[in-house]
Automatic annotation (TrEMBL):
LD-carboxypeptidase C-terminal domain location: 212-329
Annotated keywords: Carboxypeptidase, Hydrolase, Protease, Serine protease, Signal
Signal peptide: 1-29
Gene3D superfamilies (alphabetical): Class I glutamine amidotransferase-like (3.40.50.10740), LD-carboxypeptidase A C-terminal domain-like (3.50.30.60)
SUPFAM superfamilies (UniProt xref): Class I glutamine amidotransferase-like, LD-carboxypeptidase A C-terminal domain-like
GO MF annotation terms: carboxypeptidase activity; serine-type peptidase activity
Family: Belongs to the peptidase S66 family.
Keyword Amino-acid biosynthesis part of the UniProt annotation: no
PANTHER family (UniProt xref): MURAMOYLTETRAPEPTIDE CARBOXYPEPTIDASE, MUREIN TETRAPEPTIDE CARBOXYPEPTIDASE
Protein's name according to its UniProt entry: Peptidase S66
Active site residues per record: 145 (nucleophile), 243 (charge relay system), 314 (charge relay system)
Length: 344
């Protein structure tokens, strides 16, 4: 995932039953070593969502679009002090981003922390974050891309489930279906069912079989950037999800190779592959591997089911995915069924 700095305006400028049964069965069959996720409460009209920007800068216009969507569902939104700042390719200096993120995680009233954007920068501050306030006041973390580092750390320190999801800076890639998938994941306890999309380039990545276990993962670049295993969940019996954007095919090959060499794929029950949007400078030449062929070369021989074509990531019309809860991957049927990240 390459950095994608964007300009920002100042703060003042911003004026089913089957699915449930499948997931329940998974929870009963989950490995003993897999700790059951803690679930924050589902959001209801009137609940507060706090928006920090721990990574890169965004624009007031993009954030306003996201705010309008959430307020349309009856939710309240509060931007942190530096959410609309710009500082190089970061939203603000490290100390300001850290203070804003800490404020959001510690907030006693907020029911969710939905980051403004991904970009780059969360890894610069994540080791300084305290998760004591999040333990005391559980809330849903919502974001993806650079926010993968926050998902991993929060899960490690609190056991809370979270949402791999578009962020408050509402992208032009998002659709009405994207918004509805977010509303459902935030405000209901319905299982999330993701279906292989044959139009997604990674739909060619497929190894038959079924698997069940806790789902974790996110952006491959951020997973690969973890300096050690301290924030990585136990892979034994788990389902790994990966996606990425603007990375050359050889770079994806290298990340997966390092993961293989480090043993991070050992013991996995299955792998779900989301959207891998291409680097525009990575020009394909005849005889080279396509992105799907790279993924199959590195993942296809693990002896576990692999399901590609999952509409989650940086591509067009993405969906929202719970992280940390139990899931059923059925590569034969082309489905990934995931227990909700929230509870009644």
């Amino acid at each position: 995932m390459r950095n994608d700095p964007r300009p920002s305006l100042s703060r003042r400028a911003l004026i089913g039953a089957v699915a449930a049964g499948a997931v329940a069965a998974t929870a009963q069959a989950a490995p003993a070593a897999a700790a059951k996720a803690r679930k924050p409460a589902k959001l209801e009209a009137g609940d507060l969502v706090v928006v920090p920007a721990p990574g890169g800068p965004t624009t007031a216009a993009a954030v306003a679009k996201g705010i309008a969507i959430l307020e349309g569902w009856g939710l309240r939104v509060e931007l942190t002090e530096h959410a609309l700042d710009t500082y190089g390719w970061l939203s603000a200096p490290d100390e300001h981003r850290l203070a804003d993120l800490q404020y959001a995680l510690d907030h006693s009233e907020a029911k969710a922390v939905m980051t403004a954007r991904g970009g780059y920068g969360t890894t610069r501050i994540i080791d300084e974050v305290s998760f004591k306030g999040l333990k005391k006041h559980p809330k849903l973390i919502v974001g993806y891309s650079d926010i993968t580092a926050l998902h991993l750390a929060a899960r490690h320190h609190t056991g809370l489930a979270s949402l791999h999801s578009p962020m408050m800076a509402w992208s032009s890639n998002n659709t009405a279906a994207t918004a509805e998938s977010l509303r459902t994941a935030l405000m209901t306890t319905d299982p999330v069912v993701l279906t292989r999309d044959p139009l997604e380039p990674t739909s060619a990545v497929l190894v038959p079989g079924t698997a069940s276990g806790p789902l974790y993962g996110g952006n491959l670049s951020l997973l690969d950037a973890e300096p050690d295993e301290s924030h990585l969940p136990d892979a034994d019996g788990a389902i790994l999800f990966i996606e990425d954007t603007d990375e050359a095919r050889y770079r994806i090959d290298g990340m997966l190779t390092r993961y293989l060499r480090a043993g991070h794929l050992d013991g996995l029950a299955g792998i779900a592959v989301g959207q891998f949007t291409p680097d525009e400078h990575d020009e394909y030449k005849p005889g080279e591997w396509t992105m799907s062929e790279v993924l199959m070369n590195r993942l296809g021989g693990l002896g576990i089911p692999v399901l590609g074509g999952v509409k989650v990531g940086h591509g067009l019309d993405p969906r929202v995915m719970p992280l940390g809860t139990q899931a059923v991957l059925d590569a034969d049927a082309g489905t990934l069924t995931i227990e909700a990240a929230v509870a009644d």
